[in-house]
Structures are given as structure tokens and as C-alpha cells.
Amino acid sequence: MSRVTKFAGRDPxxxxxxxxxxxxxxxxxxxxxxxxxxxxxxxLCLVNAxxxxxxxxxxxxxxxxxxxxxxxxxxxxDSFWMDAGRVKQKIAPSKSPPASDDVHSSRDAKxxxxxxxxxxxxxxxxxGEAESDGTGKLIATELRNLSRKDLRDLVRPEDIAEAEAxxxxxxxxxxxxxxxxxxxxxxxxxxxxxxxxxxxxxxxGEPVRLLHKRRPxxxxxxxxxxxxxxxxTVYAQVFLAFLSGLMRADTTAEAYLFHxxxxxxxxxxxxxxxxxxxxxxxxxxxxxxxxxxxxxxxxLFAQTYAKRFVDGRSVVLILSDGYDTEPPEIISGALxxxxxxxxxxxxxxxxxxxxxxxxxxxxMAAALPYLDLFNAANTxxxxxxxxxELGAL
Amino acid sequence: MTWTxxxxxxxxxxxxxxxxxxxxxxxALSLGRPLLLEGAAGVxxxxxxxxxxxxxxxxxxRLQCYxxxxxxxxxxxxxxxxxxxxIRASAEAGETGKAVEDRIFSKEFLLERPLLAAISxxxxxxxxxxxxxxxxxxxxxxxxxxxxxxxxxxPELGTIxxxxxxxxxxxxxxxxxxxxxxxxxxxxxxxxYPDRTTELAILKARCPQIxxxxxxxxxxxxxxxxxxxxxxxxxVAEMLDFAAALMGLGIAxxxxxxxxxxxxxxxxxxxxxxxxxxxxxVASRIAGKAA
Lengths: 393, 291
Description:
The complex is a heterodimer of chains A (393) and B (291). With 393 residues, chain A is an alpha/beta fold. Chain A is built from 16 helices and 11 strands. In chain A, β6, α8 and β7 form a beta-alpha-beta unit. With 291 residues, chain B is α/β, with parallel strands linked by helices. Chain B is built from 15 helices and 9 strands. Chain B has a 5-stranded parallel sheet. A two-stranded antiparallel sheet of chain B has the order 3-4. Chain B has a two-stranded antiparallel ribbon with strand order 6-7. At the A-B interface, α2, α3, α7 and α12 of A face α2, β1, α5, α6 and α9 of B.
């Protein structure tokens, strides 16, 4: 264990140190207020504060509020009290699986790729689905796009306004009719005893007028996952506008982008300024227009975010063409996990709108058994037309 | 009581608590704050409340949360049938409206549900709010009010203030994200699966008659099994069932009889795919490694 931090002689005392520690935690993304600082002081009075292990346990109980924070806490504690120096940690470490050899993150690439022989943009070696002929069959690209695109070039404010209206319509169509809580209503399946008894006082205990309660409809939570790999670039404009419209129309919705990685963009899209939100998203969507790893992205989603944000009242909306570079079993496995959380899964595939389209891409075929709805959508009008089908779910 | 004394007291009741958990529990008791316990199913979150009530020699009031849990199930409800009968009876007796109203909305006609019961005890009870993540956001909002003020407002009766503050323990499996407001009001501890020594201590505390060799094997086996990619990782309760099953069958050595071992795995593996994954060969391989 590293040695205990020596504070300067002019240090005003334990109060200031604890306040400093809470400030340190706050700088590192833990949401703490004055009340927590005060409680931390009181807690330290109750344990042997000079024993680091005890102080650590006590402060952990006070200052953390969820598993991620508890995991992060040890390092933060060490850096403040154990002289390990102030280390700012990323609040939400990205959970991408270790990249395989043929994929290079643009973060560690030093840019040589761009000027090199050009393998990044060269066609695939002739094996696989692209081989057949030159009539433009789509395949998934295996490479990440090293360039960053500014998504603001793609999405116009008018689109967002229109998408917002569409998202509102969809939200209204998606009602959960299985609420278990009952509210007073003129017509209902159960008696509202409390009101009935109150009213019967006027008639000498004779419940003349019966009042009812019923199960109200609940809104469903929409979780949208949008594929922004190379093969989807042409549809990105519509889908990104839809996502930002959705986030503005529905305060409980969640949004994610995926290509070779999965990125949560909920917070970014909640920005009050619609275009700034798109700007923030493009900073996060590093690798936009590159390869697609649908299976691993969905799997990561099912194992991490879905545990927190997807429940029986959720509708998972996947916007993708289903062209995946990874084996199809990963998609089906991920969807099976997701389905277990009790949600509805809707897959909107822009290619389905094509004449004679059949879901032959292996990834898409593997996903089919788990889908509650498989539909086409390439334009905002298509999305708007979905409300009928969604209402029937 | 310091946290080490609390730890020992819990140990006497057969609960082996980690340092983290003991300190958090001790702070929750002294600061009068609710304690939120999170962790996988089967790590002993509910059990801690039960043990704490035994240590404190007080009542345990449990509220099991579920989707759609509402105030009438969690806080209070009027006994409507009795009220109706009473109104009829008093009408025949010729009582006036005001008197009837006062009577039927008195405590006599009030059905106490766990939350109201917990704040109206003379001795502070342990209030266990189990699996809070199953209840919906609306219920969390009620709970916030009760946990911060410890009072319940009943329109017909007025505000009922807590006689004593209950010791509140909330548990969550993390099926849903809890609101920050609720998290802020609670102390927090994430309960991990116990490590090998702790789990052995738990087994010895709960199952003192177990043979030392078998005990070590059981713990080794379960710990190794948790490293496998299972849908439902076996918890402490499953481990205890497993040990009890082995002892019931009179098995002294795990590695000796693969067929019986496989049969007892029903206590550990709770889904069909997990059972299919851990075949007899896999089980004996794990048992061999663990021994």
C-alpha cells in the first residue's frame, strides 16, 4: 500500500480535507452535494478514521451510489489519501470488447493508414458475398472508418422538427395496456371502494352510486439502436433525425449508435440545442460510416445497458440493414438475451423496402425469430406510417 | 456498538459479513439512514435484514416489491367492507352523519400495511424493502417521502408521525436503474459473491456438522462454477443447499462419484441451458480442479 498523503502544514484541518475529498470525487463524476460532505464527516467520527481501511469502507458507503461508482471509488480514494496523485478517471469507461487484429481504433492509429497503400478503401479480396457479380450487392465492410464525419452536415433542423412529430405519433401508438396500478375512471372493471364508501355516507350506507377504477394505459419506453456503419450511410440522415426527434419528444427514450462499437448517445441528444446535440453526437460517433459489427454491439448492449434500461415495458427499436461481419450466432444470442428481459423487439430494415427483398443476409435471417415486428423504413414518412402496426403490438 | 462488535454479533447469528458491509450497516444504524444493498441474487442481501433484526432483538417488517405495488398495498388501506356494514348498522341505530363519519374513519377501520406498521412501533423494527427495483417509479416517489420524513399523511385521519424510526434496509438486484434521488438518501453497499475463505466461514456457520474435506471441496467447486459462463450464477443460498444435499446423500468426497454429483447439481443450476452446459464430464473436471 502506498503511503498516506502528507498534507501541508497550512492545511486548515480535517473538515477541509474531507470537503476537499468530496470535491475530488465530484471532479471525477460522482454526484455529491454538501449534505454528503457533512455526512462523510459524521461517519468518520463514528469509525476509527485514522485507520485507512475503516475510513475507506465508511466513505465508500456514504459517497457511492451504484456499482460503477463503488468500483471507481478505490482508485479515487488512493489518489487523494494515499498520495497516488490526482488522477482524473473517465466517468464511463468504454466497454468495447478487445479489438481483433484486423480492426484498428482510430484512437491508437497514428494516421499512417491514411497515407499508406490504401488497403483501407480497397475492395475485399473476392471471397464472400461480394464475389457474385457487379450488380451492387451490399456487404458489410470489415474496416473501421478512420475519418470523422460531422453529422451536422447530414441532418437539417427541419428534419428534426418533422422527426419529433413522427416520434410523438409513434410514442402515442405504443401504449402498454398491462398497467397494474388502477386509477379512478368513469368506466372501469373494479370498484373504487374508497370513493364509493365516501359517497354512500350520504345515502345512509347504501352504495347507490358505484364508482370504478381501471388500469390506465402506460407509455412504453423506446430504446433505439441505430446502425451507422458504411452500408447504412445513405439512410443515416433519416435515422439520425428520427433519433434526435425521438429524444426530444420522449423524455424516457434511450438512443445508441453502433458500427464496430456501441455508443450511448442519450445524454448527448438531450441537449436543448438540437444542432449542438447532433454535434456532440458526432464527436462520440467516432468511426461513423465504417464497418459493422452488429452481433457484438447488440451483445454488449444486452449485457450492459439493457440490464439497466430495458424492462418489460420497453420497446427496442433496431435500425439496421443486417449486414454483419461477425458470425450470425452472435446476433441471435444477443437478441435472445434481450428478449428475456421481456421487451418487444422491432427491427426496421431500410432494405426491406426494396422490390424482391428477402432477408437472406445471414445476420438478418438469424435475427428474424426474435423479432416482434420486421418492417421497412427509409424515410420519415415510412416511420410515421408505422404507428398502426405498433399499436397492434 | 462499534462496527467490529456488530460484525461479531452478526457472526453469532450465523451471518458472516464483510468489513465493507459491517461498516456500512453500523453507519446506517448510527446515522439513521436507510441502507441500499445491491448485488446478484443469492448473495445474502435479504438475509442481512433478518439477521440484523435477530441481533437487535426486534421485529422484522418486510415489504416485497412488485410491479404495480401501490399505496393501498404498501402504506394503508381502509377496511371498506367493515365501513359499509358499520354505516348500515349506525343508520339503523339512528346515529347522525358526523358521528358515523368520525367512527368509520378512525384507526379501528384502518388496515396497516408494512410501511405504516413500521413507523408505528414502539421499538424500532427493521424494515426490509425487498427488491425495490421491481416496483415502479411511482412507488419510489412514495418511498422517498416516507424515508425522509418518516410520516404518513392520511387525508381522513391527518398525519401520522413515526413513534420511532425504523432501521431501513433496501435491496435491489439491479433489474432497473433506481432514481438518483433515492440513491442519494441511502448509504450504499454492493454485495459481492464471497471469496473462498468467507464462503467457507459461511458454510461452517450455517452447517457446522459438515466434514472439513467436503466443506473445502464444496466451496472450491462452487467458486469454480461461478467462473463458468452461466445464465444464473449460483449464490450462497444455492451453495448451502448443495452442501446439505451432499450431506443428505452421505457423500464424503466430491470426486468419487460423478453420477451422484451430477444429480445434486440441481441445487446449483437453475436453468435448463445451464444444466445442459455443465455435463457430468464438466462437473467432474471442475470437481477435480477444485479438490
